[in-house]
Amino acid sequence: QLQLVESGGGLVQPGGSLRLSCAASGFTLDYYAIAWFRQAPGKEREGVSCISSSGSTYYSDSVKGRFTISRDNAKNTVYLQMNSLAPEDTAVYYCAAGDPLCHGDMDYWGKGILVTVSS
């Protein structure tokens, strides 16, 4: 069964950090770009970051300089290190695998994990 599973979410205070993980099973991530998306309550889903199959990284303006995406192909896992978190980062975060260059559609999606930034 092909699936992506997110972990590492939870409640954190403003200014804090979390590291999300996206683990794949049933397929290898080596040939896919992996992207993180998020959807806040009452808002549309937005792209947060993407790492291509070759390791190129992309970030939305809202997280640039605070979030870092990385991949460990040996562990078949992608990470999103989130620092300096703010309440507006509160959302359900999803990882997705797709087009190797981060340019196309996503083929596989995780179920999402909640990140809440609050004091």
Task: Describe the overall structure.
The protein has 119 residues and is an all-beta fold. Helices cover 0% and strands 51% of the residues. The chain contains no helices and eleven strands. The strands form two sheets. Strands 2, 4, 5, 6, 9, 10 and 11 form a seven-stranded mixed beta sheet that branches. A hairpin with a 6-residue loop joins strand 4 and strand 5 (46-51). The chain is globular. The mean pLDDT is 96.
Q: Element order, helices and strands? A: EEEEEEEEEEE
- Helix and strand content put the structural class at mainly beta
Distance between the termini: 39 Å
Radius of gyration: 13 Å
Taken from the alpha-carbon principal axes, the silhouette is: globular
The share of residues in helices is: under 10%
- What's the helix count? 0
> Unreliable runs, pLDDT <50, ≥5 residues?
none
What number is the mean pLDDT? 96
Largest sheet: 7 strands, mixed
Strand content: over 45%
Count of individual beta strands: 11
Short description:
The protein is mainly β and 119 residues long. It has strands spanning 3-7, 10-12, 18-25, 33-39, 46-51, 57-59, 67-72, 77-82, 91-98, 106-109, 113-117.
Task: Tag the structure with descriptive keywords.
51% strand, four-stranded antiparallel β-sheet, 119 residues, mainly beta
